[in-house]
Amino acid sequence: MPNEPKSKVLIVDDEPMNVELLQAYLGSEYVSVSASNGKEALTKVNEEKPDIVLLDIMMPEMDGYEVCKLIKAAEVTKFLPIVMVTALSNREDRIKGVEAGADDFLIKPVDKVELTARIRSLLRIKHLHNSLQQEKDKLQMQNRVRSVLTRIIPTLFKTVPLEQKNMIIHQITHMVVESMLENLIDEDLKTKNNPLGEVCCLLMNQLGGSFEFTPAPEDKASFYLKGTKCPWGAQEAQLNPILCNLTRGAFARLAERIGDEMDIEVLSTMGNGDEECIFKLSKQG
């Protein structure tokens, strides 16, 4: 895809000519950074966050085996692909590299076609792993939130006086929204035409819903949030309409955090048996 960011390759070699050759082979397809020794390589891994490492074995002070072991031992970099680039080709050296955690090997002098093929292959595996991990984290978060909202809250409300329910709804909404804000609100959103609409939809969709916003044709200061999939579960929301109040409260809390003063009108909700949820948000004043 044309707008997809280029993958970053860290080249580690104490010979500048080797670094220049690999950079020439990578061309403009990748962003390349380099390190001339093991210590610098570990620093660059943490600072540059490369997508893959091309690692020379024979280096002074700290060889490639030790660098590889340290990268693979760290929790945040244990799945970072490492290709050992070496003039060593005997069986024992390869076994030592495998034991250190290397994902692949290239023998010097490096063939350009083989180099790019190995990199593409390892990056595909890395991207697949990242996607699976993100999906796993998303599902775990959804399950935790739904467990609290659909099981604990209804039971709790049976014993809570009516005047305390609104306070509890407000507190729960605050906790749900605050737990998501770090991942949802960033500088990129602030440059978009409707950052509040973007954030509201992101929150609902991150929770498992399917929401989108559209400008209100009749009023430039308003927009609609429409959901075709309930983040709490349509059946759960029908059994416990309080969950729909949480959605409205989440929108209000997000507006407050972004700095917008909004009136929120609930036009329809799946919790009331409607086909979709529709909320209209209008700027006050």
Task: Briefly characterize the structure.
With 285 residues, the chain is α/β, with parallel strands linked by helices. 53% of the residues lie in helices and 18% in strands. The strands form two sheets. It has a five-stranded parallel sheet, sandwiched between helices.
Q: Which fold does the CATH topology of the largest domain refer to?
A: H-NOX domain
Distance between the termini: 43 Å
Could you tell me the radius of gyration in angstroms? 26 Å
Structural class: alpha/beta
Observed structural traits:
285 residues; alpha/beta; Rossmann fold; H-NOX domain; 2 domains; five-stranded parallel sheet; four-stranded antiparallel sheet; 10 helices; 9 strands
Task: Give your account of this protein's structure.
The chain folds into 2 domains: 8-128, Rossmann fold (3-Layer(aba) Sandwich), CATH 3.40.50.2300; 160-283, H-NOX domain (Alpha-Beta Complex). By secondary structure, it is α/β, with parallel strands linked by helices. The strands form 2 sheets. It has a 5-stranded parallel β-sheet with strand order 2-1-3-4-5, with helices on both faces. It has a 4-stranded antiparallel β-sheet with strand order 6-7-9-8, covered by helices on one side. It has helices at 16-26, 38-48, 64-73, 91-100, 112-157, 162-184, 187-190, 195-206, 234-239, 242-258, and strands at residues 8-12, 31-35, 52-56, 82-86, 104-107, 210-215, 222-229, 262-268, 277-283. It contains 10 helices and 9 strands.
